């Protein structure tokens, strides 16, 4: 029902709105339009939804809504100008939707530009989730934890319509109270991965009036997370509800409500960073020296001043070395910068080393993440919320390893499943979905071959934590392919020793791709593997071309990590390989493809080493020539002088 | 307090120089330049035999009618020069020393950054800039 109206309204704007976005925006528009025209009070939602198509939102409620987004005034002015409201003189659906999207962009820290809207499809989702994410700060699990999600949604809509009247209709709130009361239990959830539609509703209300929640609190709390609360605008009810939950949550999770969404590190990101750290420095409790870190971060292709600034931010103790939390913070800043976020003035609180150490005691806590779905377990929830939020918000961060993508889809599944069921069922669903996610997370290798995501495939080939073996670890220069195949599953570690530590490798994903393809053909004996590898490598070939530049950089980062890293991934691969043996032919396939990838990476590395050595050779030749010339000059001088002295 | 702060490299070229009244900067640059001679004089006078025991803080290098110039040398022959307004009554020696110490600490932090090549201009370190600003703005 929502979708219909949403679809109708969504056809106006030039943006590509996803279904959730359409729902949310249409609701907001209905509210603003209704408020202006004294629209249908408790009328059927359909009627209300039909209105937006023919009505424009009045400036008053729209201005309130924008102000409630807590953006600075100049940003709002910018947004208003950009969306064209000033041009047409009113907030039609198009302008309204554009404005909402810009608000989401601004809230997520992206510059307010038309380009933010016109970005490719992934971005709208990003915006949406960002909005949701912003909302989720205040959205306790009320949406999620509600026993009956759908009836709750309906009451929500009724609430929205009520808002149009701007009255303090108590009638509706009691209706909502019983429904909403269950959510009171999970108020501690920070960022419950609510269904997008619900979260969007929430987000719309969030955006409306986050301010007056304190006033609402006494009202809200007794009522529980119901909309309730007379007085003020109906949107405030929602906002207050949400805010009250956020406030309630605060004691539970003092870290969750930081408004710096892009600066949170998700679980997958954390794992990725930790693995990278281990590749540079096997001991996670020790430091990475400055020069090592410099080489590593230079590969990210950011400018030196930016890298210098990132270092300044992340090296909290200014000792010239990075501990694990410092490293994660620096890495995260680099990733964020590469994805377009401006660097912050100071280290965000979620990136402080203390926070990182507290929030991520152990890298792998997927199970616990999902266990606490309806309980207050702040520590667990933090990473899970971070997980959810970040996954949704960084969906299009190409740098992130594949798990991000998969987990995002897991999130969606979890969201949908929870949305559709009552709370008890949600509980059961969550463990199920969480287990799915866990299993997925725990077995990225199984996903690697089945995943269709380009990023996943690319990352798979390069990712240490994933089964597709880290290429460089198992490859000696001239060893035959047979040897590699033989050794790889059994003794990857020793193989890594044979690998010459590659010098700085220039970013060349393309040649590596062709390498992989050729390698794939060379091994006819790996019947299935070659085909698989060939399939994956052409895919990979396409990936760098079609993906944003950060992806090739990420690939480069991976293979360029020197030998120590190769040992780590080799052991990882060894473990992965052993784990996979449980599944016979999948194991064989994987091993062979792993071997192929190993071979391909080794070839690539050797080529790069060759190139560097060739350069070095030419330079030395140059120097040799110069020295020769000097020698000749000196000998000439000597000749000239000798007759003089003789005389 | 300071109206001009300069960090001079071992080879006597400036790594960082900043003055507060942004007009008439050239005058301060010239003052810093001339003070280098005095710094060298003090270093050579002290440090012939006992370089290690040489104190880092050089004290007042020379006074002019409007300004006083203080100097500080690190063990790696990087010099810090600070020009202070004479009208500032009684800036005690201790305060100058503490300012130099802060400068030295910030400089060390900049050096710790692996992305900083020794010998480069110190232009990308916001921490250093903010520290210098705090020293200069105290007066103004």
TrEMBL record, chain A:
Name of the molecule in the record: RalBP1-associated Eps domain-containing protein 2 isoform X2
EH domain segment(s): 21-122, 269-354
Region listing for Disordered, in residue ranges: 159-194, 217-237, 401-602
Keyword tags: Calcium, Coiled coil, Metal-binding, Phosphoprotein, Repeat
Basic and acidic residues bias spans: 409-428
InterPro entries per record: EF-hand-dom_pair (IPR011992), EF_Hand_1_Ca_BS (IPR018247), EF_hand_dom (IPR002048), EH_dom (IPR000261)
Domain EF-hand: 302-337
Biased composition (Pro residues): 499-510
Feature: compositional bias, Low complexity: 222-231
Example of a GO MF term: calcium ion binding
Gene Ontology CC annotations of this record: cytoplasm; plasma membrane
GO biological process, one term: endocytosis
Gene that encodes it: REPS2
Organism ancestry: Eukaryota, Metazoa, Chordata, Craniata, Vertebrata
Biased composition (Polar residues): 528-537
SMART domains assigned: EH (SM00027)
UniProtKB/TrEMBL annotation, chain B:
Predominant place of localization: cytoplasm
This protein's UniProt keywords: Cytoplasm, Endoplasmic reticulum, ER-Golgi transport, Golgi apparatus, Transport
Entry keyword annotation includes Endoplasmic reticulum: yes
Pfam families named among the record's database cross-references: Sedlin_N
CDD domains per UniProt: TRAPPC2L
Cellular component annotations (GO), alphabetically ordered: endoplasmic reticulum; Golgi apparatus; perinuclear region of cytoplasm
GO terms of biological process kind: endoplasmic reticulum to Golgi vesicle-mediated transport
Subcellular location: Cytoplasm, Perinuclear region; Endoplasmic reticulum; Golgi apparatus
Record-stated family: Belongs to the TRAPP small subunits family. Sedlin subfamily.
Name of the protein described by the UniProt record: Trafficking protein particle complex subunit 2-like protein
Name of the gene: TRAPPC2L
């Amino acid at each position: 029902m929502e979708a219909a109206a949403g679809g109708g309204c969504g056809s106006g704007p030039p943006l590509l709105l996803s279904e959730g976005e359409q729902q949310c925006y249409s609701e907001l528009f209905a509210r603003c339009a209704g408020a202006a025209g004294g629209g249908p009070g408790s009328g059927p939602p359909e009627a209300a939804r039909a209105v937006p198509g023919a009505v424009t939102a009045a400036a008053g409620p729209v201005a309130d809504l924008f102000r409630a987004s807590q953006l600075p005034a100049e940003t709002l002015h910018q947004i208003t100008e950009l969306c064209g409201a000033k041009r047409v003189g009113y907030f039609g659906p198009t302008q309204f939707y554009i404005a909402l999207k810009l608000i989401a962009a601004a809230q997520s820290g992206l510059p307010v530009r038309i380009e933010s809207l016109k970005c490719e499809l992934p971005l709208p989702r990003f915006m949406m989730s960002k909005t949701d994410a912003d909302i989720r700060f205040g959205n306790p699990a009320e949406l999620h934890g509600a026993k009956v999600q759908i009836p709750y949604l309906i009451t929500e809509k009724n609430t929205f319509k009520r808002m149009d009247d701007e009255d303090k209709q108590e009638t509706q709130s009691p209706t909502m109270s019983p429904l909403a009361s269950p959510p009171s239990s999970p108020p501690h959830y920070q960022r419950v991965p609510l269904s997008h539609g619900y979260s969007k509703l929430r987000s719309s209300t969030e955006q409306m009036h986050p301010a007056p929640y304190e006033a609402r609190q006494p009202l809200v709390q007794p009522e529980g997370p119901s909309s309730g609360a007379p007085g003020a605008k109906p949107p405030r009810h929602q906002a207050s509800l949400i805010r009250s939950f956020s406030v309630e949550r605060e004691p539970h999770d003092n870290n969750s409500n930081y408004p710096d969404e892009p600066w949170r590190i998700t679980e997958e990101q954390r794992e990725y960073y930790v693995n990278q750290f281990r590749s540079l420095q096997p001991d996670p409790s020790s430091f990475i020296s400055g020069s090592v870190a410099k080489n590593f971060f230079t590969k990210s292709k950011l400018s030196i001043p930016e890298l210098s600034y990132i270092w300044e931010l992340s090296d909290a103790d200014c000792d010239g070395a990075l501990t694990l939390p410092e490293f994660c913070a620096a890495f995260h800043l680099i990733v964020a910068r590469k994805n377009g976020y401006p660097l912050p003035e100071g280290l965000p609180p979620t990136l402080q080393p203390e926070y990182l150490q507290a929030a991520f005691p152990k890298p792998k806590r997927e199970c616990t993440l999902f266990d606490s779905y309806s309980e207050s377990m702040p520590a667990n929830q933090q990473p899970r919320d971070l997980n959810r939020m970040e996954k949704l918000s960084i969906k299009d961060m190409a740098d992130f390893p594949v798990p991000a993508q998969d987990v995002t889809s897991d999130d969606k599944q979890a969201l949908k499943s929870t949305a559709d069921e009552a709370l008890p069922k949600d509980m059961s669903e969550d463990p199920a979905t969480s287990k799915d996610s866990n299993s997925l997370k725990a077995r990225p290798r199984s996903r690697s071959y089945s995943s269709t995501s380009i990023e996943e495939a690319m990352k798979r080939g390069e990712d240490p934590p994933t089964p597709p073996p880290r290429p460089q670890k198992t490859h000696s220069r001239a060893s035959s392919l047979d040897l590699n195949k033989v050794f790889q599953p059994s003794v990857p570690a020793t193989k890594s020793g044979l690998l010459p530590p590659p010098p700085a490798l220039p970013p060349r994903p393309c040649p590596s791709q062709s390498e992989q393809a050729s390698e794939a053909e060379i091994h006819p004996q790996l019947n299935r593997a070659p085909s698989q590898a060939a399939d994956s490598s052409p895919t990979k070939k396409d990936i760098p071309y079609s993906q944003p530049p950060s992806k090739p950089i990420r690939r480069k980062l991976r293979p360029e990590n020197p030998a120590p890293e190769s040992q780590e991934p080799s052991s990882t691969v060894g473990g992965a390989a052993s784990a996979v043996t449980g599944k016979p032919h999948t194991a064989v396939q994987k091993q062979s493809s792993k071997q192929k990838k190993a071979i391909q990476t080794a070839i690539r590395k050797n080529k790069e080493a060759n190139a560097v050595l060739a350069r070095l050779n030419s330079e030395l030749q140059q120097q040799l020539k110069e020295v020769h010339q000097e020698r000749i000059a000196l000998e000439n001088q000597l000749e000239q002088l000798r007759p003089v002295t003789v005389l | 307090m300071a109206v001009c702060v300069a960090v001079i490299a071992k080879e006597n070229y400036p790594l960082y120089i900043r003055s507060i009244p942004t007009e008439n900067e050239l005058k301060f640059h010239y003052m810093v330049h001339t003070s280098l001679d005095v710094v060298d004089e003090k270093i050579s006078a002290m440090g012939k035999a006992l370089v290690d025991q040489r104190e880092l803080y050089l004290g007042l290098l020379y006074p002019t009618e409007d300004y006083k110039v203080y100097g500080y040398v690190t063990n790696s022959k990087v010099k810090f020069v600070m020009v202070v307004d004479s009208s500032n009554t009684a800036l005690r020696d201790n305060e100058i020393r503490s300012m130099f110490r802060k400068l030295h600490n910030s400089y060390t932090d900049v050096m710790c950054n692996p992305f900083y090549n020794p010998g480069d201009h110190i232009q990308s370190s916001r921490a250093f800039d903010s520290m210098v600003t705090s020293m200069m703005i105290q007066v103004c």
